Amino acid sequence: MSEFTKIDLDARALEHPKPLEQAIRALRELNDENYLYMLHRKNPIPFIDLASEQGFQTLSREDETGNWHILIAKNPSVTLEELLRV
Q: What does the radius of gyration of the chain's CA atoms come to, in whole angstroms?
């Protein structure tokens, strides 16, 4: 597997609409060599749907503390499950 660069976004302390604004900005930066790893206090379904509709692959999982780990990649060869840290 090739190395992919992680773009970190910790949105747990941000108030609406900042998480969505920053996530959309990060989405625009994605290319075949990187992926977004977002931490959030809830599952941002509208953002995940938006990314999916634009052809990105997505993965979201809740950890034991109630935080959500959201991974998004443009490159279909990125295996998001392998990059998940829950």
A: 12
